[in-house]
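Task: sequence design from structure.
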């Protein structure tokens, strides 16, 4: 068992995705602690590979160290996929992930060197979520459940009910990503001198709140669409998980708003505010990953269902 190369590849892909999630949390801690400019140079930190880990330097430099680790893991994953993965399109996703982690590092450096311009900071946050999605996709596709060829998109005859569920789940992924992008705009808009609590832009807040309702509608609709599917217990569990994560995200969003208002009224950061806002970003990433896995799972189940249907019909025709 321990010598199965495909199982080892899957475990490594999962480990890389988990490391990327830790990186997302570390990035949220940097923003929540207003530590983005605690290290004003890049790629070194105060001219050193290992500066004194005090104050905001601890969060910013830890973020860089974790990012470097994720980069190394992604390099290994891309070469491992190239050597062991028979599906060429998955190998290409591995190389895409590698290029994306390099671009993400460069964006992070530009954000620091140019004193956190809003457009670059938002792009850095959004690209990080896309990169996380790529790693989650690779983790799923290298698992035993993800070994299908996913040729549904090229088939002229698909089972309509299952196809609608797959499309709904896929659209939910996009809707959640838009909400995370709006959240990034809200977090970084109004930043002055590295402090995200300088101002609170009402238009960004209202857009984020409105789109939360849209996300809620899609999450609930997707969950109801997949619940009760025969022989699809994993999809049902993912549907319940998405509804739970969305409810938790709403509560954390209220807490994040409270923390932002408090920060506007006083200069000192509250530990509770840092924890809440960081958890808000983390749960958002988990909700995105859960919806993505559900979408991939439904696509695989649909493909399997179509294959069984084709087999049954071919047998009936031949008889």
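Answer:
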């Amino acid at each position: 068992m321990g010598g199965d190369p495909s199982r080892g590849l899957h475990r490594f892909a999962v480990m890389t995705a988990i490391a990327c999630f830790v990186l997302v949390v570390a990035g949220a801690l940097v923003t929540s602690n207003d530590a983005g400019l605690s290290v004003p140079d890049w790629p070194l930190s105060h001219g050193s590979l290992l500066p004194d880990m005090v104050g905001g330097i601890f969060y910013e430099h830890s973020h860089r160290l974790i990012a470097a680790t994720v980069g190394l893991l992604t390099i290994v994953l891309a070469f491992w996929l190239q050597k062991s993965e028979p599906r060429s399109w998955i190998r290409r996703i591995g190389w895409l992930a590698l290029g994306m982690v390099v671009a993400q590092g460069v964006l992070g450096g530009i954000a620091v060197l140019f004193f956190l311009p809003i457009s670059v900071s938002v792009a850095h946050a959004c690209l990080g979520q896309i990169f996380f999605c790529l790693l989650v996709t690779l983790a799923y596709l290298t698992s035993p459940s993800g070994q299908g060829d996913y040729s549904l998109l090229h088939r002229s005859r698909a089972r309509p009910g299952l196809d609608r569920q797959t499309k709904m789940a896929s659209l939910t992924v996009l809707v959640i990503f838009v909400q995370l992008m709006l959240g990034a705009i809200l977090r970084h808009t109004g930043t002055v001198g590295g402090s995200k609590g300088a101002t609170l832009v009402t238009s960004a807040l209202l857009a984020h709140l409105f789109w939360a309702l849209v996300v809620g509608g899609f999450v609930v609709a997707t969950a109801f669409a997949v619940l009760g599917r025969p022989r699809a217990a994993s999809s049902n569990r993912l549907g319940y998980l998405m509804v739970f994560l969305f409810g938790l995200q709403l509560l954390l969003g209220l807490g994040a708003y409270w923390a932002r208002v408090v920060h506007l009224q006083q200069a000192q950061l509250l530990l509770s505010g840092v924890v809440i806002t960081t958890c808000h970003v983390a749960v958002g990433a988990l909700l995105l990953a859960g919806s993505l896995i559900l979408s991939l799972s439904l696509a695989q189940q649909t493909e399997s269902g179509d294959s069984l249907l084709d087999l049954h019909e071919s047998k009936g025709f031949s008889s």
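The first helix runs from residue 5 to 32.
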